[in-house]
Amino acid sequence: MIDANLNRVKEGLRVCEEVTRFILDDRSLTSKFKTLRHHVDLAAADCPDRDHLLASRASKKDVGRTVSIHSELQRSGYRDIFLANIQRVKESIRVLEEFSKLNRVDAAVKFKALRYDVYELEKKAIKKFGSLCNHR
Predict the structure, then answer these.
(1) What sections of the chain are H helices per DSSP?
(2) Residues 16 and 85: beta-carbon distance below 8 Å
(3) Which positions ≥6 away from 15 have C-beta within 8 Å?
(4) 100 Cβ partners below 8 Å, 6+ apart?
(5) Tens digit of pLDDT for each residue in 52-75?
(6) Residue 77 region, left (φ>0) first, then alpha (ψ -120 to 50), else beta?
(7) CA 55 to CA 20: how far, in whole Å?
């Protein structure tokens, strides 16, 4: 679970970073998403050893692998892609925060702080999308 959610957070942040870089053309937001992605790695350092997580990965046996809903396969534009991925990031960070409370409280505290950072970045990016739409 930790491995899956770490991957999910970083993948989602990377998509958001690419949207702010190539669509919004915003250096500051791009830098903040990149920095946040690296802070996830720092928080993950307080989690079990990454080699152990990788060795425990059972992607082919994951019962959630083939579970999907129709809306996951549809996106109406760049903003929609961003929103889907930022939501994925928030959900996964919350999972990491909650399960870290079981044996890695220091990591839980870091994930909580990261979650609030994501909330602020989301707000700034959504505002930027609004101004982008107003200029077109």
Answers:
(1) 2-18, 27-44, 50-56, 78-100, 105-134
(2) yes
(3) 81, 82, 85
(4) 46, 47, 107, 108, 111
(5) 666 675 666 666 667 676 566 677
(6) left
(7) 34
Q: What is the C-alpha to C-alpha distance for residues 34 and 15, in angstroms, rounded to an integer?
A: 10
Contact 22, 81 (CB under 8 A): no
Cα 10 to the chain's mean position, in Å?
Answer: 5
Amino acid type, 61: K
| Residue 18 identity (one-letter amino acid) | E
Cα angle: 16, vertex 105, 88; to 5 degrees? 20
Q: Give the relative orientation of helices 2-18 and 27-44 as an angle to the nearest 10 degrees.
A: 170
Q: What number is the average pLDDT over the span 2-13?
A: 94
Q: 78-96, pLDDT tens digit by residue? A: 999 999 999 999 999 999 9
Residue 84 is which amino acid? A
26 burial (CB, 10 Å; 0-12 / 13-18 / 19+) is middle
Residue 135 pLDDT more than 60? Answer: no
